Amino acid sequence: MTELNGKPAVTAAALRLKVGLAEMLKGGVIMDVMSVEQALIAEQAGAASVMALERVPAMIRAEGGVARMAKPGLIKQIIQAVSIPVMAKARIGHFAEAQILQELGVDFIDESEVLTPADEAHHIDKHAFTTPFVCGARNLGEALRRIAEGAAMIRTKGEAGTGDVVHAVQHMRQITREMRQLTVLTEQELYAAAKDLQAPYELVRMVAQAGKLPVPNFSAGGIATPADAALMMQLGAEAIFVGSGIFMKERATPLDVENDPKEREEAVSRAKAIVIATTHYNDPKILAEVSEQVTGTMKGLAAAAIEEKELLQTRGW
Amino acid sequence: MSDLVDMQSKPRIGVLAIQGDYAAHAAALEQAGAAPSLVKTPEDLRLDAQSALEALVLPGGESTTMLKFLEKRHFFNALRDFCVQKPVFGTCAGAILLAREVRNPAQHSLGLLDAVVERNAYGRQIDSTILTAETALPGGPLEMVFIRAPRIAAIGPTVEALAWRDGYPALVRQGTVMAATFHPELSADRRVHHLFVALVSGAPAR
After folding, report:
1. What's the CATH number where B37 sits?
2. A33 DSSP β-pair partners
3. pLDDT, tens digit, for every residue of B101-132?
4. For residue A233, which of A139, A263, A281, A294 is within the disulfide window of CB 3.0 to 4.6 Å?
């Protein structure tokens, strides 16, 4: 890792600090929040971090339009309100949005396919930032290309905003299978594997030796229930991102946590249950208890019913 | 040496595994000659009907998240009872959990270390840093990885400081309680974990 891209001085200590924060988030839940009130609910439920954004993926999908970085005012309010780390999303390739997020003091930047991409060829040069980045990936090659660009955390991509876990499962299985396959190759075979994966040889060799990514691998996209979170953890995720699963009611309508006590209670019950399920992912007795305590689940949208060109996960290359 | 003999001779040290970098701590303890196991419930503090773990590590992570779990199922009291009797080592979030008083914001804690700890005292992730500084531990300067680090603002008379950042204690010991505001588990230097394992091995039985 330390001599990647020929920038040893930039990466050695800086990269350790970036990956270090990702290490601290392991075993936790990172929740999408659209207001201070939601951020406080997330923190009180035990979220390890919150992702500040103006519209969760389910709303972006339903409402359309260009999805951009959240407004700085909202991000600053959320940073003020909670003591846990705050993340925010920048558009793919939009390094100016990332510069602004770093200036605001955001703890982790998500270069996210959920927002409308700003560059169809280049991702952000993440080594150029002090703030760590997380990026999505559907396969090992994509994950390693993002790590080569400086990502300190990978999240396997599900189909965001659906509440359907099927693609999160598919891509986690894909990446773990590809990593296992690398571990049985000979030194000579790794060069061809690097060519096939379209990823730097050095990173391919590190995965072949360790059997895992050189940065933490979290799961995101379509996780809506405690059972979904437990499933992804058992499949090898090191932590869980929950987007629309906590605060959405119908496809484009959030629960009214500010004014309706019953809807607030529902959001709280979902958030608490997913946090507990992520820690106790291997304990069916606890999973059964917390699943029973959840008072409702987002309606969701079957990922198979979405047209290919409408998929968010295919953005990024 | 067979695994069985191996397990019997090594101190059995638990790592609180609610959330955070508990896997890094388990690996570091193993390198320092201990046999680590993960603790997710109060029952995990026991090995079997006859015996319990010998010591506990509270890892880095989010102290608010860990507290949520501890406040359920009598975990908090079970943990405090365990740590009163057996050695405990907290890093970063773990140090916050051990403190007598927590500031910025104030929050519940185990109160086992006579110290005042301020959360996120040095700023946000962008202010995280790796420093190499003098330490009372033998072997020269110590690398310290600070991530959204807390600060030990004050310590009681029975607390001994073993390393410092800007004049504030960064590694402390009070009897069988150890705490660090940095992350020795993320450095290659194992002196801090060796110190804790030695404390466990030499701790008087109570």
Report:
1. 3.40.50.880
2. A52
3. 999 999 999 999 999 999 999 999 999 999 99
4. A281
**Cβ within 8 Å of B, A 50-79:** 79
List, as one string, the DSSP characters of chain B: --HHHHHHHS-EEEEE-SSSSHHHHHHHHHHTT-EEEEE-SGGGGBSSSS-B-SEEEE-SS-HHHHHHHHTSTTHHHHHHHHHHHS-EEEETHHHHHHEEEEESS-------EEEEEETTTT-SGGG-EEEEE-BSSSSS-EEEEESS--EEEEE-TT-EEEEEETTEEEEEEETTEEEESS-GGGSS--HHHHHHHHHHHHPPP-
Average pLDDT of the residues of chain A: 93
B27 in contact with chain A, both atoms CB, cutoff 8 A: no
In angstroms, rounded to a whole number, what is the distance separating the alpha carbons of residues A55 and A64? 11
Shortest Cα distance from A209 to chain B (angstroms)? Answer: 17
pLDDT in tens, A47-101: 999 999 998 888 888 888 899 999 999 999 999 999 999 999 999 999 999 999 9
Q: Which of B39, B57, B61, B152 is nearest to B103 (CA)?
A: B152
- Catalytic annotation, pick one of B54, B83, B118, B183: B183
Cross-strand bridge partners of residue A218:
A155
Is A268's Cβ below 8 Å from some Cβ in B?
no
CB contact under 8 A, A21 and B147: yes
DSSP string for chain A: -TTGGG-HHHHHHHHHHHHHHHHHTTT-EEEEESSHHHHHHHHHHT-SEEEE-SS-HHHHHHH-S---PPPHHHHHHHHHH-SS-EEEEEETT-HHHHHHHHHHT-SEEEEETTSPPS-SS----GGG-SS-EEEEESSHHHHHHHHHTT-SEEEEE--TTS--THHHHHHHHHHHHHHHHHHTS-HHHHHHHHHHHTS-HHHHHHHHHHSS-SS-EEEESS--SHHHHHHHHHTT-SSEEESHHHHBSSSS-B--TTT-HHHHHHHHHHHHHHHHHHHTTT-HHHHHHHHHH---------GGGS-GGG-STT---
CB contact under 8 A, B22 and A27: yes
Q: Where do the domains of chain A lie, and which CATH numbers do they carry?
A: 4-179+212-310 (3.20.20.70)
Contacts of A44 in chain B (CB under 8 A): 68
Mean pLDDT, chain B, rounded, equals 93
Answer yes or no: do A43 and B105 touch at CB < 8 A.
no
Count of structural domains, chain B: 1
